[in-house]
Write a structure and sequence with these properties.
Largest sheet: 5 strands, antiparallel
Oligomer: single chain
Number of strands: 11
Helix content: under 10%
Radius of gyration: 16 Å
Shape: globular
Strand order of the largest sheet: 4-1-7-8-11
Order of helices and strands: EEEEEEHEEEEE
Strand content: 35-45%
Length: 175
């Protein structure tokens, strides 16, 4: 029997992002959501080119997802802020002009596995589809200060929606 990924029973008490994969929002052919639970769930996801998904090997304990609900103006807006930190030698694709062009033209969709066991889909939603994808806020290249420091790239992505991120079926190296 497989645990329901939306069930808090299967979650570990651990914070942070364990794994992430990125693709252009234009790579999504079809997405369907199941709203029968308290949290939206992505029940179907088809990609135009599965090989165009960029898997990110993250530096342990350095990446995070923050989702903030702001209802000050009477309408709920959820801001999704995804901070990914990877070894510079393994994530140089984030620095390529092609990645920047694709992210600027179409935005990004992220498949994220949190350390607590949740699998989430960011940059696409039931209400907006791919109209509110993740956008690059910044890319920081850090050489470190000491010889033993690991050179890193930090990618900060953000999107706005009216709901928290949808859960996703568990993935093992592929969304």
């Amino acid at each position: 029997m497989t645990a329901d990924p939306r069930s808090p029973v299967c979650l570990k008490p651990a914070g942070g992002v364990a794994e992430a994969a990125l693709t252009s929002a234009a790579n999504l052919l079809e997405v369907q959501f199941d709203d029968s639970g308290s949290i939206p769930h992505c029940s179907l996801l088809r990609l135009a080119d599965p090989a165009a998904v960029m898997h990110c090997r993250l530096i342990e304990d350095e990446s995070s997802l923050v989702e903030t609900l702001d209802a000050r103006n009477g309408f709920p807006v959820v801001t999704h802020s995804l901070s990914l930190t990877a070894d510079r030698n393994l994530a140089e694709a984030w620095l390529s002009p092609q990645f920047a062009r694709e992210a600027a033209a179409h935005g990004l969709t992220a498949f994220v596995r949190l350390n607590d066991g949740r699998q989430l889909l960011l940059g696409v939603s039931r209400r907006f589809g791919i109209e509110q994808p993740l956008r690059i806020l910044s890319i920081t290249v850090d050489s470190g200060r000491k010889p033993a420091d690991q050179p890193a790239i930090r990618l900060l992505l953000e999107s706005a929606d009216t709901a928290f991120a949808a859960t996703l079926q568990p993935f093992t190296n592929e969304p």
